[in-house]
Amino acid sequence: MQFQNYDQLRVISQQLLTNDESINIIKLFDNFNNYEHKIQSTFRNVMITDINILSIPNLKNAIISANEYFKFNINVNNSDCFFAKYDTGMHYQQLHMDCIAGENQRKLSFSLTLNNDFKGGEFQLLHNETVETKMGKLLVFPSFLPHCVSPVISGSRFVIFGWFYGPNFI
């Protein structure tokens, strides 16, 4: 997918999971007592928990395959992966980049939507450009691409997200 303001950048999207697989993952991880981080601030409001990337069928391989386009130097054995729940009113409204300074740079980010039964919660880029998401759809993008999640208006938005690390770009 190409965006008018980012001719050199892409968000690669593909259908990764079936509806049944997505529902089963939600059942596996959606437990109020399971959420390790309940983040609440003016710019971010979400519940998340760490998960093993290998617990999601084909996720790691799909991201590594998408990197054939980006050609980033990533360590395929160094990633972070999280399960998140955005209830009504929750968001990550502030545009942000996932990259951080340091020897190991977050280089390739991903977001896997697990359900459709919510309103709001759009994945947005600069200039309010929205990337279409739906149940089982994986987005892979450079960690330096500014993005945010609009407030959920109704329902709960479930997503798996994270990033792969690699040496600094420079």
Main traits of this protein?
two-stranded antiparallel ribbon; 14% helix; 2 helices; mainly beta; disordered N terminus; Jelly Rolls; eleven-stranded antiparallel beta sheet
Quick structural summary:
Helices cover 14% and strands 46% of the residues. It has 170 residues and is mainly beta.
Spell out the blueprint of helices and strands.
Elements: E1 2-3, E2 6-10, E3 12-15, H1 19-29, E4 37-40, E5 44-50, H2 59-70, E6 79-86, E7 91-96, E8 104-113, E9 118-120, E10 123-125, E11 130-131, E12 137-142, E13 147-149, E14 152-155, E15 157-167
Antiparallel strand pairs: 1-2, 3-12, 4-5, 5-6, 5-7, 6-15, 7-13, 8-12, 8-15, 9-14, 10-11, 10-13
Number of helices: 2
* Count of the domains: 1
- Overall 3D shape: globular
Radius of gyration: 15 Å
What is the CATH C-level name?
A: Mainly Beta
Termini gap: 26 Å
Structural class: mainly beta
Q: Helicity level, as a percent range?
A: 10-25%
The CATH architecture term is: Sandwich
CATH topology-level name: Jelly Rolls
CATH homologous superfamily heading: q2cbj1_9rhob like domain
Can you characterise this structure?
The protein is mainly beta and 170 residues long. The chain has a single domain (7-31, 46-163), classed as Jelly Rolls. Helices cover 14% and strands 46% of the residues. The strands form 3 sheets. Strands 3, 4, 5, 6, 7, 8, 10, 11, 12, 13 and 15 form an 11-stranded antiparallel β-sheet that branches. A two-stranded antiparallel sheet has the order 1-2. The radius of gyration is 15 Å and the shape is globular. Residues 1-8 have low confidence and may be disordered.
